[in-house]
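REQUEST FORM: STRUCTURE PREDICTION
Request ID: SP-0412
Submitted by: Lab K.M.
Chain count: 1
Length (residues): 408
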Amino acid sequence: MEKLRVIELFAGVGGFRLGLEKKGKYKVVWSNQWEPSTKTQHASMVYEKCFGGENHSNADISQVPTSDVPDADVLVGGFPCQDYSVATTLQNSKGLIGKKGVLWWSINRILSEKKTPPKYLFLENVDRLLKSPSTQRGRDFAIMLKSLDELGYAVEWRVINAADYGMPQRRRRVFFLGYHKSTSLYKSIKNGDKVDWIHNSGTIAKAFPVKNMSHPRNSFSIDGDLVALSENFNKEGKLSPFQNSGVFINGQVFTTKTAPNYDGPNAILGDILQNGKVTRDFFIPEADFPKWAYLKGAKKEMRTAKSGFEYKYSEGGMIFPDALDKASRTIITGEGGKSPSRFKHVVQTKKGLRRLTPIELERLNMFPDNHTLLEGISDTKRAFFMGNALVVGVVEKIGESLFQRINS
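STATUS: Completed
RESULT:
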């Protein structure tokens, strides 16, 4: 069977590529990585070190002409969660414009301008996308679904916590697949039982099985143009109408809550430690113990805002040090550096308390050891990459399922 050709956008350090190319069924034919807020393009440098610079673009994707992007079977990317609100352009009442710098519209543009758009989309985002913004819960996801509908795609989605399926990190993300109306998978969704697709027969359900439970099902249509949606979607609602799983086709949403069904082995934080190979830099000096303990601990205290306003501040305690017999907490972008922090991981070893190393953080995302190692790139920056990355094992399993569905 021929490999499926892939365009990888917002590539970061290549998590999607690692997951898809692992079994030799996909080939990335063009990639783009651009970090707008930094002069030195560190992530792109790591990407080129690992995969070569050929057919890799390190330019602002919003400025890259669609003609520079080759045709491919699949478009993938983990794009930032931003404000997707839409307005009409002043010059052209028919033209739509999203907020400046919102990268979703670059995907939208490429799909709309291509003579032969990709048949399949495989995208990832934080699960907050399903309920943002707080003033109109679910509006942003509704805009995305509607814009894909207008481009001829059906969509299925699922919020997946990697640790629920035996992976070493509790990292919850929404993954969604798009199927162009020219594909047999689109027709399968259109003609089949939508709830069965979500629970049993769909691409994501085959990769990540769920329990057959009778959760309430919600079905509704997304009507009107994108501007009307942007202004009016769920204005009165306190909750998002989107559950953690669903299908969207021909303007109609079918959504329900699902729970993972997994009874295999479970990787834990203790499995990935480099004990015996860790330099002193990662160990916490005893003088800093009280500061770490305070930040990790429960608090109920009065605080004063810059304005002089006094308020009661409270937060719960965190496990300190981190439990080695469970999957780790979610890695965040501020994981690196020596300064005490509430959110950084700390583990107890025979030699003392210490932070996690770049290799350990890579392992929690199921990257190869030293994937992000490159001269001139600090350990703090390497930790930042992993805070932005996805769990490669999730991509691999969904990619495998999609390939099988396309070729069955």
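NOTES: Residues 89-96 have pLDDT under 50 and may be disordered.
Reviewed by: T.R.
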